[in-house]
Prior knowledge:
By secondary structure, the protein is an alpha/beta fold. The protein contains six helices and 14 strands. The chain has one domain (2-202): Ribonuclease Z/Hydroxyacylglutathione hydrolase-like (Metallo-beta-lactamase, Chain A, 4-Layer Sandwich). It has a six-stranded mixed β-sheet with strand order 1-2-3-4-5-6, with helices on one face. It has a six-stranded mixed β-sheet with strand order 7-8-9-10-13-14. The protein is globular and about 45 Å long. It comes from Alkalibacillus haloalkaliphilus.
Amino acid sequence: MNIYSFSLGLLGTNCYVIEQNQKALVVDPGGEAEKLIQFFSENDVQPIAILLTHAHFDHIGGVEELRSHYSIDVYMHESESEWLTNPQLNGSQRFQLGEIKAEREADHFLTEGMTAIDQFEFKVLHTPGHSPGSISFLFESEHVLIAGDTLFQMGIGRTDLPFGEHQTLIQSIQVKIFSLLDETIVLPGHGPKTTVGEEKEQNPFL
Length: 206
């Protein structure tokens, strides 16, 4: 399994491409879909699904172009089902960035626990706080967690946006993420990667 990272969109959101046997999952395509399309073309990789850690505008900007270009499905948590198509809920209207949205809601909703998409198996962790539908994706065999905006290197997700809850975020991190092996690599929604162990020991917010 190979994991590629792209910094996309106005806020430099980390988009991750998880590739195996020339097929790929795309996590949080925040914008600039043409860069991803070029990557897939040049490397003869076929994307098969889009996964969203949550539906804030800076994580969904490339969803519609990728979904329509490759005729692939979008997966996310049901509690943010309306956010993909609603600029007021996903925050793009609030920050006066124009309407960032998808044409329709997600095709599938993910719940806590193990799931499989084609050849990919991973565990979904519901990690609300930054937003009510925030989820993290754990690839146990690789010891990798894609955490969205829940946990950063020496930081945590902001909770001052609508529907954010600070105590809920702290609980998500302590119960869901800090229970993982210390060597688990954490791939955040923004900034550099870290590990569970490093954040347990050094994160000033925790």
